[in-house]
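ok so i was messing around last nite and threw this chain in just to see what happens. nothing serious, just curious
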Amino acid sequence: MRVACSLAMATLVGCAPLAPPPTSLVPQSRPPQLARPAPPSVASAELAQFYRGLEQDLLTRGLLRRDGGGPDTPYSDEDLLRNFETIAFFDEHFRQGLGSSGALSRWQDPVRFEPVFGPSISEEQQKTDRAALTRYTQRLNRVTGHPMSNVTQDGNFKVIYAGLDDRRFVQKQITSHLPGIDTVQLSSLLDAPRLYYCIVIAGGPSEAPFAYTNAVALIRSEHPARTREACLHEEVAQGLGLRNDSPKARPSIFNDDDEFARLTSHDETLLRILYDSRLTPGMNPEAARPLLLDILNEMKP
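result:
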């Protein structure tokens, strides 16, 4: 299960620029090699073992597919319109009485993805994760037509890769990036049950909460490769505004059945609709409904 929730931030605090380093004619010494991460704790190692077993079970059953759907997963325009309304206008916590409903959420400003790594993540794994995020960002940029890029600092959408042993680091990252987060929302990120594979939280200022300006996705470092990839694809897409899941969505990552690990052709269409300029943050389903069929028809060759 992968989880998304929304956040209306009362204040969005930016970082002050750092002062430039003092000029010196003395050559700077090379920094020492980064220390290797400490061995994982017993709890982290046990969680990694649990996720390896879970992933193997899913793969054995033909789940976590990477093919994006095919002849076995047909869908119609009616399916797309129904699924878009369910996934874009409601969030998955609404079903539990915890979330919001009835308004469309998306980014208006350019999205700057910044990968952030906990101390437990090896340099080799960091390189792999950065490359995966870069490829996905390029795909999302092409699909949505909305400006998206990867940065090494000052990102407005942080993708945090961290494990159980990185709790303090994660808490510091979240509270500095989302200063308006409350204790319940913070706990949902720090203390998520192990069956919540990963989680994302996104929001905007209190006067325009559906116009996203900041987001944080948390991907557990204990995940093996395929689950890690599935988390990246779904959490980032949910953080862009497709914040719900639906058992009727197929082929789709927005479905708790874990059938697909990567964004599908169905999901790409939902993102294209979401970022059409005729739709705006805060729009309700009734206002959007007359536009959706026109938007969908114009996408066809």
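not much to say yet. The CA atoms of residues 175 and 181 lie 7 Å apart.
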